[in-house]
Write a structure and sequence with these properties.
By secondary structure, this protein is an alpha/beta fold. The chain has a single domain, classed as Metal-dependent hydrolases (TIM Barrel), CATH 3.20.20. Helix 4 packs parallel to helix 5 and helix 8 crosses helix 9. The chain is globular, with a radius of gyration of 18 Å. The mean pLDDT is 94. Bound molecules: zinc ion (ZN). Zinc ion binds next to loops. The site of zinc ion (ZN) has 6 residues, from loops.
Length: 285
């Protein structure tokens, strides 16, 4: 079984996670730019973060046989800090880079005017750069937030097939299915979706335009939840081909719209900018 996790924040994870993910079948991931738990206070820290998503993290993933791409954006939560507005001006430089396969995560956190403005601007940037968009939906008042998100996406004129609306649940899946956008589900250990609810949604809505991710980050989360969904699908009667559609073909099809998805075999490099993930000389080499 091969798995593509279309939304995972590996910067917050360890090499043990990479090892376990590889053992579970994960061969490709996309790491969206997001917030880091503690608010940042200056645009320069975003440049360093984006550089890490394009440099050190793909290098680290490659050491474990996993292909890493990323999405770049000013996230909804931090777009409320006026000190960070210049990040929007940094984005064009990053959206031109080879391993950037979408604009994201954009969307709403608290649904403020500042979030409105950042979202609209970044949807424009996606159109200008010919990139798909990964849209986060708010955790509070999710139905209203998702409805509003879909309105804004519609007004932007972006084709729905280039937009992925993420963190959906039973309440919001229907309206996104109708919109023509792709549907993303984050499967967490004890909040939002779990694997059995995910399987029930796949039974109701089919596998078309459906993406499943672990959204693992610095909070309580599990990078193996993609595999847990695959196993739950198989034990409830889905075929190997249906599992492959949801956990590999769909994320590939969505991000391939960037024209930049490169899944040719990764070869672990020796070092990245002179640094390696080794601690001292490896044994028996
Ligand atoms: Zn995320």
């Amino acid at each position: 079984m091969r798995i593509f996790d279309p939304h995972i924040h590996m910067t917050s994870r360890t090499t043990d996670d990479y090892e376990r993910m590889y053992a579970a079948g994960v061969r490709a991931i996309v790491e969206p730019a997001f917030w880091l738990g503690q608010p940042r206070t200056s645009p320069g820290t975003f440049a360093d973060y984006f550089d890490g998503l394009l440099g050190w993290e793909p290098y680290r993933a490659a050491q474990f046989g996993i292909v890493h791409h990323c999405t770049i954006a000013l996230n909804p939560k931090e777009s409320n800090d006026p000190r960070l507005r210049p990040v929007l001006d940094l984005l064009p430089r990053y959206l031109a880079k080879d391993r950037v396969v979408a604009v994201g995560e954009v969307g709403y956190d608290d649904v403020t005017p500042a979030e409105d403005e950042a979202l609209a601007r970044q949807l424009e940037l996606a159109a200008e750069h010919g990139l798909p968009v990964l849209v986060h939906t708010p955790h509070r008042d999710k139905a209203a937030g998702t409805r509003r998100t879909l309105d804004v996406v519609r007004e932007s004129g972006l084709p729905p097939e280039r937009v992925l609306i993420d963190h959906l649940n039973e309440m919001t899946v229907g309206m996104v299915a109708e919109s023509g956008c792709w549907m993303g589900f984050s499967v967490y250990p004890d909040t939002k979706m779990d694997e059995d609810r995910m399987v029930a949604i796949l039974k109701d809505y089919g596998s078309d335009r459906m993406l499943v991710n672990s959204a693992a980050d610095w909070g309580r989360s599990d990078p193996l939840k993609t595999r847990a969904v695959a196993d739950a699908m198989l034990s409830s009667g889905f075929s190997d081909a249906e599992v492959e559609t949801v956990l590999w073909d769909n994320p590939v099809a969505f991000y391939a719209q960037s024209g930049r998805l490169d899944l040719s075999d990764v070869k672990p490099g020796d070092t990245y900018a002179g640094n390696s993930i080794q601690r001292g000389a490896p044994r028996d080499r």
